[in-house]
Amino acid sequence: MSETGARRRSGQWPGQVWLPAALSVKYPAAPLALGWQYVFAAPGFSVDPRSGAVRRHHVDAKRIQRAVKRAAAQAGIFKTVSPHTLRHYLPFLTMSCDLDEHS
Fold it and tell me: Are 18 and 48 in a shared domain?
């Protein structure tokens, strides 16, 4: 069991996500559940000004865009590249290699 997993289950993990009031009442453990966590989480935590709860938020989209552009430059790709470009590249790649895109 990882340290993060143990801390999350014990309630000491500050990585709660914000949920609408109805969901947080109906599912009180949901803000800590792995299924509700952000895939691209921000590196730090922030304090909710209304409740004072320490929460994790999603990473800013601009950070992902910059990382993709930096990776393209390092790979020697000098055309305009964005995360959206990757979305279109995957189906092209799977069709050209005769792969099933849903597998």
Answer: yes
